[in-house]
Amino acid sequence: MTSADEQIEHRQNQFHTWGVYGLLAVSTLLSVAAHELMTSPAEWYAAGALVVAAVLLQLWHGPRRGRRTPSARGTVYYVLRWAVSFVLTWLNPFFGFYASTGYFDSDELIRGKRRQWLGLLATVVVVAGSQSGGMPIRSPTQWLLFGGLLGANFGLLTVVGHITQQEEQRSRERAVTISELERTNAALQQALDENAALHAQLLVQAREAGVADERRRLAAEIHDTIAQGLTGIIAQLQVVANAPDLAVARTHLERASDLARHSLGEARRSVHNLAPVALTDAGLPEALKKTVAEWGERTGVRAEFTVTGTAEQLHEEVAATLLRIVQEALSNASRHASAGRVGVTLSFLGDQVILDIRDDGSGFDPLTVPARTRSGGFGLDGMRARAERIAGSLTVESEPGHGTAVSARVPLVRHD
After folding, report:
1. Is the separation of the CB atoms in 342 and 302 below 8 Å?
2. At what angle do helices 246-271 and 140-222 cross, to 10 degrees?
3. pTM of the predicted model, to two decimals?
């Protein structure tokens, strides 16, 4: 309950407690002023005794402390008060002010709507009798006036009662609405708390996913740089071990040294998430042409590179992905295919870029490729994951004895 509601409740308690005393005092003073209406000492004694009885009755009823609940005790009090006011009004019509107290608390004292209306009707009779000149009613004119006042008072009481009932209904509806709003606010607060907890959980999951993705990226970069470089170095050293003269050995040692430096630079750039060295000063077509030529020179396999369509400057992530796919495909061809010829084609087709790597090697059955192990490379799975990371796709066509064709199709995203 708000402070305003508490203040209203306090004023209502004061009115119901002291209002009866006040109306009784006003009625008594007016009756004394109009003393000619009570002609005999007996009437004066009777009026005085009834006023004292009214005060004692009010003291017995006690002060109002909050809205009362209708009860048998309240009904007895209402009936006794009405009886005292009826006799006082009979003695002097100015006691009708005291009789009007029955208008204010019938709903708090009498059980049942029908009984409440009967109590109000009894009060209206007393008030209308006092307004028409007092009781008993002696002339037809007074009867006519009494009937009109009775109807007017009861009609006015009905209108006021209807308005009061509507206001109480609105108050109940407001109370229900406030209660529902409180429940809604509580549910909303609970939802906000749950959302905060979920947000925190999502942050943790996103951080874990970011860590896992960075681990995969570094693993792929290490595979494409250090692992392939070391493979090339091993191959060059094997040639050196079987070299017929010092000049041939020196040539292959220089190549092994270049591969070591190149792999070291690529590893450093991978750690810093930079583009491959081949893309630093050239676009993707030039980088692929150089990569294919160096690979062919290093392995002794005939390697060709072709560009179709209008070449465009690609986004660095797209270019780096396609370059890594070519490096992995060439590494697989040198290690597994025993190919005599390799062809790499980069095609610019509208909003797509297609990269094809074909060899005439031994081929394999794609359905029987063993799962990647801790000692094995990333291979086809790594190339496919790279393509899918930039919303692309990778397909592999191969057959034992008929070579292998790898095709990567990615969106054409231009350089910023």
Report:
1. yes
2. 170
3. 0.44
Q: Which DSSP symbol is given to 108?
A: H
Torsion angle, alpha carbons of 73, 75, 76, 78, to 10: 120
- The Cα–Cα gap between 389 and 408 comes to 12
- What is the enclosing helix (H) or strand (E) of 316? helix 316-332
Between the CA of residue 324 and those of 72, 74, 278, what are the distances in Å?
96, 95, 11
Instruction: Say if CB 372 and CB 334 are below 8 A apart.
Output: no
pLDDT for the residue numbered 62: 85
Identify which of 36, 27, 169 has the alpha carbon closest to the alpha carbon of residue 98.
27
Rounded Cα gap, residues 374 and 378, in angstroms: 10
pLDDT score for 376: 44
DSSP single-letter state for residue 401: T
Do 227 and 335 touch, CB atoms closer than 8 A? no
- Angstrom distance (rounded) from CA 156 to CA 81: 22
- DSSP element (H, E) containing 346: strand 341-349
Q: Cβ contacts of residue 46 below 8 Å, gap of 6+?
A: 87, 91
The DSSP element (H or E) to which 124 belongs, if any, is helix 113-131
Radius of gyration over every alpha carbon of the chain, rounded to an integer in angstroms? 53
The yes-or-no verdict on residue 262 having pLDDT over 80 is no
pLDDT of residue 352: 93
Cα–Cα distance for residue pair 406/364, rounded to 1 Å: 12
Closest to 345 (Cα-Cα) out of 265, 270, 285: 285
